[in-house]
Amino acid sequence: MKVLVIGSGAREHALCHSMSLDPDITALHCAPGNAGIAEVAELHAVDALDGSAVSALAAELGVDLVVVGPEAPLVAGVADAVREGGIPVFGPSQEAAQLEGSKAFAKDVMAAAGVPTARSYVCTTPEEAVEALGAFGPPYVVKDDGLAAGKGVVVTADLEAAKAHAAACERVVIEEFLDGPEVSLFAITDGETVVPLQPAQDFKRALDGDEGPNTGGMGAYSPLPWADPKLVDEVMETVLQPTVDEMRRRGIPFSGLLYAGLAITSRGVRVIEFNARFGDPETQVVLARLRTPLAGVLLAAATSNLADLEPLRWSDEAAVTVVVASHNYPGTPRTGDPITGLDEVAAQDAPHAYVLHAGTKRDGDAVVSAGGRVLSVTATGKDLAEARDRAYRAVGRIRLDGSQHRTDIAAKAAEGAEAAQA
Ligand code: AMP
Ligand code: GLY
Q1: Model pTM score
Q2: What range does the domain containing 152 cover?
């Protein structure tokens, strides 16, 4: 099978890394990719947001499957362009991607499907926003309606800060605060059949102890030793299948990856948000544990054949990923700094720990930083403690001037069930 992956993050590197280990893959292409993906796939300098260029590239390469990684091309209709060209594509249509692209649309689908989520108001004027903030009280949750790369949400006890964020957005969703630990659960669907993956937890705040600003994600781990073993079944029944069914009922079937961001509250599981793609960095740990070759699963979803798929096989091992970010991330990051130590990780830590690149590029013989989240180190082990040790040992070998990473990824979960839920 020949595959083209669209995107350039650590998630796309994780997808390519998994597929590079699959004997059924005869050619692996990526556009636009990064310095790490270049080691396992042939890169093409095509704009990921340009549907006709992606479709033309897929046809020229004669690929059997296109996998669209990030949300921006999905919301821009890149999957539609490839599908119209007659090539199977893993990723929802532009219309279906509104589940991620518009928080108000997602709330409407959840209401129709009876999916448990935070109560909310959609507001378009400052007056409406003030009224909604008053109705819920602190802590306030104010979300920009559109795509904001994980940075459009403000959760604060400060009414003035909440009002200011609402005023800065055209349309906002203001909602009830959900307490309790967060879980990311991904499901692969062809619009009808839904196949859940294993749950993961990511760390959204920039600094240790969940302090500092929201980011795209600073680390993740899987499995979740503290979670109820029935969690996946419950979310399938109350969230994933009803949502997929409701999308089909509306005539906009969702095929691709449905990502449920969940809060495990004292009153039960609630959806925080949906995404229409693999989450980053959770993908790094979920795929590290998937034993079934990935491309066949994605192709089955792209060709409406998921009902015939064998049950997925999973490793018993645990996985941890730690993101290394540039100086000043999530503000405007510093770029162009050389990254060293990558060879040492490959020589001393593989295959238990490996580097997945995000914002990197080649500059002559050197690999330099080219974005906010620069890379993530993923490691597996017999339990979270071993996976964590291996991940941090490899992180310690990587040198990037001014870089930052959290030191507490999966720490509580590795210590014990009770601690992680606090
Ligand atoms: P989102 O972009 O919707 O995932 O929001 C980013 C982060 O904001 C989430 O991962 C949560 O940590 C937090 N958040 C979003 N909605 C709520 C909510 N209703 N209650 C508490 N925290 C929330
Ligand atoms: N891990 C958060 C995201 O992918 O949106």
Answers
A1: 0.94
A2: 119-175
